[in-house]
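A quick aside before the break. I want you to see a complete sequence-to-structure record at least once, exactly as it would be stored in a machine-readable document. Don't worry about memorizing anything.
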Amino acid sequence: MLPTAAGCEQRVIAWFERWVADRPSVSVKRDRAGNLLITAKPGTAGTKRARRPIVITAHLDHPAFVVTNVEDDRSIGLEFRGGVHDPYFRGASIEIFSRNGSAHRATIASLDAGAKPFRRVRARLAKPTRAISLGDVGRWRFGGARLPRVEKGLLHTHACDDLAAVAAALAAFDALLRRRAAVGVSLLFTRAEEIGFIGAIAACRLQSVPRGARLICLENSRSFADSPIGAGPIVRVGDRLSVFSPALTNRISDLMAVHARENPAFRWQRKLMPGGACEATAFAAYGHESTCLCLPLGNYHNMRDIDAVVAGHRPARVGPEFISVADFHGLVEMLLVTCSELDSARVPSITTRLEGLIEAHGPIVGLGAP
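That is the input. The structure line, written in tokens, reads:
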């Protein structure tokens, strides 16, 4: 998985530019904050229909280190951009990627947890090098089997959050293009989500979001006992900060319920997911109708046994994030159903169903003819 950090997403963006270059039917625009808006070129998306746009969003960064100081060929200063509890830094092994792509092993020697705007660490390189420079990205280094890997239906890798969602968005968009059903659908990939939705806020302020669009924000959210990995992708009704746009959330839930009845193998969940915050909160705060679809995630932000560590019952250890491969494919399916059926009359709205109830049972409370 490509190294990435808030404000240093260049490796993921370069990969994405190659993805676009292989698809002549796709165009991409960057706003002044570096967010990427992907659309199908005119004539390749299908027959135009009058409907409000659908924008599928995901972010390109993951909690990681950024080099801020090169003391000598063994001592490196870095800041950590993202949310990870302090105990996980102590004596941890990391790897720093130089501009030529080489990985250099290091160990965290000290942590300044009170540094602003981000925590700072000093790392000691395993071998001396002059290849590391300011702005290079570092990430946790894990021992054991090679990454990425799939074991017992689970994908283990450095950063599912949010690159697995980026991959799901691209897979769904590819399928829509093949079906000539991408009209009115676009992708928005944002930067610097892990330090406070910076790319999403910028997209709102720069008016990078199409007017009147409905935003479907994709995330990887910490799994809990009532939101298990492997039980299907999740229609997320809210996060630890807010509840998302109810009409859009409920409409997608209705679509998934009908799709599951018609396709018994399809599994999905509807959950609050309060383990973190989501860009849907930011977009809604700026007046956009938005909700979230997410993958339940293990080792959230690479933290193993979070609750036990916070409670002081276990030592802090970092580890690869992991998701269910079946959940990933379910998320792609969820996106395709949503983009195809969101404006369909085939599945009645909640309002239509409620009106049917009052017509049938209104006389009980004195409304309508008996």
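Two observations worth writing down. Residues 246-262 form the longest helix (17 residues). The first strand starts at residue 26 and ends at 30. We'll return to this after the break.
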